[in-house]
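Retro notes (design track)

What went well: tokenization of the new backbones is finally stable.
What didn't: we kept losing track of which sequence belonged to which structure.
Fix going forward: every design gets posted as structure first, then sequence, in one message. First example under the new rule, 338 residues:
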């Protein structure tokens, strides 16, 4: 977690940690894309290229005791919150030993008992779930934790977004809602999605605080996200973070993203946050090129080992499988204990 003022050595360490999660997420995404093209992954592959700085900033700024509801573009945040690479690889490759026991094909994975929520839908459904957990903790007298929910700008047009943000504001819940405005909801551009000048303007209508940032800027992501989380933790109610960037891939690997214009790709919006981070680390002498190369090869080795392991593991057996949901299985265990 980031706790120190910008410019201090500890900030350098937090930035290095965040960068390494970004790098691992990008390389993991590249591997999933390659496995998809090779026909080794069935169903969709959904990647977060260009969103790693924002996502990692959320993961490193949360505490393990917090609640995190990531979406399909949050490989970096998932890793930073503590998800092992093997969880992601086992889920995509359908291993029965994965957290979803081989039943989910891609990104609806999580460990709810650990505050890391499996997503229901990308379109805002998770915000009320985070509210519910924060509410339950309040009723049990558990204090000090926050809940972070990720959204795309498309989700801000849904009823789920409205109901959940309004409820969080009325109840002053410690919710941090991070909106990645990556300019497209699938192929729908922002001009067909909302009519306000800036999504952050919506915050005033709900009575919540807003923070805006350029999500291609690695340092801005860390500073703004960690301060929004700190404000929610300190009792200032829900925080809306609006992060601007460009999605650097299709909606999923099946989508060639031909609707993203070259002018957008070539603008500052289209900067690759991973490259920006590498330049920042080199300029501030936090890491040199040789160090970056070592981290890259370590991450590649870790990913290759996880893939080799998951490929040797069994798929679920429909005749042997316990078909109960994860939560009811847990309830049965509790009943047996009492
Ligand atoms: C209720 C619902 N409607 C439609 C979909 C299909 N869908 C999944 S993601 C998506 C677009 C989301 O866009 P945005 O919220 O901007 O997030 P981004 O994909 O840009 O990260 C759509 C239409 C869905 N998952 N759930």
């Amino acid at each position: 977690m980031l706790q120190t003022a910008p410019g201090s050595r500890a900030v350098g360490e937090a930035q290095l940690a965040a960068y390494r999660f970004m790098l691992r997420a990008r390389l993991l995404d590249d591997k999933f894309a390659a496995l998809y093209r090779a026909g080794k992954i069935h169903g969709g592959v959904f990647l977060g290229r260009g969103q790693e700085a924002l996502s990692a900033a959320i993961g490193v700024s949360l505490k393990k005791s917090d609640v995190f509801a990531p979406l399909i573009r949050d490989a970096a945040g998932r890793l930073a919150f503590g998800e092992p690479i093997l969880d992601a690889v086992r889920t995509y490759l359908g291993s029965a030993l994965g957290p979803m026991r081989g039943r989910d094909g891609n990104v609806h994975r999580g460990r709810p008992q650990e505050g890391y929520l499996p997503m229901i839908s990308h379109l805002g459904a998770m915000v009320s779930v985070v509210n519910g957990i924060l509410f339950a903790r309040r009723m049990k007298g558990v204090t000090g934790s926050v809940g972070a929910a990720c959204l795309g700008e498309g989700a801000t047009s849904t009823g789920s977004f409205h109901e959940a943000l309004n409820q969080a504001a009325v109840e002053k819940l410690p919710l941090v809602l991070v909106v990645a405005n990556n300019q497209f909801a699938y192929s729908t551009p922002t001009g067909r999605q909302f009519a306000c000048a800036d999504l952050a303007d919506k915050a005033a209508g709900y009575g919540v605080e807003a923070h805006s940032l350029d999500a291609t800027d690695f340092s801005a992501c860390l500073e703004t996200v960690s301060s929004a989380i700190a404000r929610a933790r300190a009792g200032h109610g829900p925080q809306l973070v609006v992060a601007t960037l460009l999605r650097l891939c299709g909606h999923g690997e099946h989508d060639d993203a031909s609707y993203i214009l070259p002018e957008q790709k070539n603008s500052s919006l289209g900067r690759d946050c991973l490259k920006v981070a590498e330049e920042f680390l080199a300029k501030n002498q936090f890491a040199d090129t040789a160090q970056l190369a070592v981290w890259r090869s370590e991450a590649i080795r870790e990913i290759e080992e996880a893939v080799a392991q998951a490929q040797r593991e069994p798929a679920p057996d429909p005749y042997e499988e316990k078909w109960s949901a994860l939560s009811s299985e847990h309830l049965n265990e509790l009943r047996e204990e009492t």
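Added context from the reviewer: Residues 9-315 form a domain with the Rossmann fold fold (CATH 3.40.50.970).
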